[in-house]
Design goal:
Length: 221
């Protein structure tokens, strides 16, 4: 199904300000192509279930954990959009008058947030195999990049270091039995902006099987 949609490309970056087609992903998919059950979502939220989406405030350089419980479908979609808007290749998203980008800039793996809000039984889903670390190097940003957001610039210049520290923390918590982790067993071959549908479907199937295995091993299935 995914193969027939032109959802990623420089054309979208030029015409819509995002390398991923935001109209397709945040309007057509949830409302037309694969309708999202908003009623069920807000019914669960109304019963007290909390679903937070993580964003980075470009002005403050701090993480914001946002929810939508009033039934506003448009705002819910905008939270999802902000939470997944990668720096450099996505527009900054306005949420309640605040400029927001991907939460992973400030808090890639928000396990500490879970502990801080009283959740002691946590499952972390990682996108990389155990032991993987980003071996790239952090660099100071050129002055013209996000020049109006100095705190965001600082975060981006230290992003890899912060991410690797969080991976260290996840493995320490896992080894001490404080969290459960679902992760790929082998290095993944899918890029961050992957267009190869066969690779994406193979990764999806691997994730499904790993999730099923996790449930069986922990007596949940």
């Amino acid at each position: 199904m995914l193969a027939k949609y032109d959802y990623i490309g420089l054309r979208h970056l030029v015409t819509q300000g995002c390398i991923f087609d935001p109209e397709l992903l945040y309007d057509r998919f949830p409302f037309e192509i694969i309708p999202f059950d908003y009623d069920a979502y807000f019914e669960n939220v109304g019963r007290g279930d909390v679903f937070e989406m993580v964003t980075t405030n470009c002005q403050t350089g701090k993480t914001e954990y946002l929810t939508e419980s009033s039934g506003d479908r448009k705002r819910l979609n905008e939270l999802a959009r902000a939470s997944s808007s990668l720096p450099y290749v996505s527009k900054i998203v306005d949420i309640d008058g605040k400029p927001m980008l991907d939460g992973g800039i400030a808090d890639s793996i928000p396990i500490q947030r879970a502990f801080d809000t009283g959740h002691q039984s946590n499952v972390v889903v990682c996108t990389r195999n155990k032991g993987w670390r980003d071996r790239g190097k952090d660099h100071k940003l050129p002055k013209f990049v996000y020049r109006n957001y100095p705190r965001l610039r600082v975060l981006l210049s230290r992003r890899l270091e912060a991410y690797n520290r969080q991976l260290d923390m996840v493995e320490e918590l896992e080894d001490s039995g404080k969290i459960l982790v679902i992760r790929p067993e082998n290095p993944i071959v899918v890029g961050r902006m992957e267009k190869d549908v066969e690779k994406l479907e193979a990764l999806y199937e691997e994730g499904f099987l790993l999730g099923e295995k996790f449930l069986k091993e922990n007596g949940l299935y």
